[in-house]
Amino acid sequence: METVWENLQVPISELPQVENVHFQSHPLRYRSLRFLIGGIWLGIICLAFAIAAIVNPDWWALWVGVSLLLFVVFSFTTMHYGFMRRSYALRQNDITYKKGWLFYSTTTIPFNRIQHTEVSQGPLERKFELCTLKIYTAGGSTSDLSVPGLEQDEAQQLRDYIARKAATYA
Question: Which of 31, 40, 91, 165 could potentially form a cystine with 83 if both were Cys, beta carbons 3.0 to 4.6 Å apart?
């Protein structure tokens, strides 16, 4: 008996909705860390401007100063609202991470595509007792998904769970 090959269409309305999944948010310490890092970079920019304005005072300094002030306000607003949108969801077969405020993205990686995972922690993250979970898929030298701002225990548990799930597909 000959098997007939079929490729039936799947109606969009029957697909599972990622919006219906319960997402886990980041601890408030992560927002503080983002504000600290952003403040350091913006402080360096403001310091460079102040030095340039003192060395060469001119009419342009007023316009650049106002623009810089607007940029600082916009940056901290973006960090605040961006933090509120950052969250992840762990499902039976994949992990999903969403982030962004003006530019919004949702990334989903199925466990059967994961090559390896790692937990990293920089000096400021260590001070705030936070970690970043990095997930790698085959074919790249950089992580395909980074979930920053996780509690240390939570990051280790996620890494172990994802590694076990990915190993079942190997």
Answer: 31
Q: How far is CA 98 from CA 51, 104, 111, in A?
A: 39, 7, 17
Structure tokens at 166: 């990915």
Distance between CA 144 and CA 113 in Å, rounded?
Answer: 11
Sheet architecture: strand order including 130-137: 114-120, 130-137, 145-151
Q: Which residue has the tokens 């001119």?
A: 58
* Helical spans, DSSP H, in 3-59: 28-55
Structure tokens at 139: 């074919």
Query: pTM score, two decimals?
Result: 0.79
Beta strands 114-120 and 105-110 are unpaired
Cross-strand pairs, 110: 94
Mean pLDDT per block of 10 residues along the chain (170 residues) reads 83 79 92 93 86 78 82 91 93 92 90 92 95 87 86 95 87
The alpha carbon torsion through 36, 41, 47, 53 (nearest 10 deg) reads -140
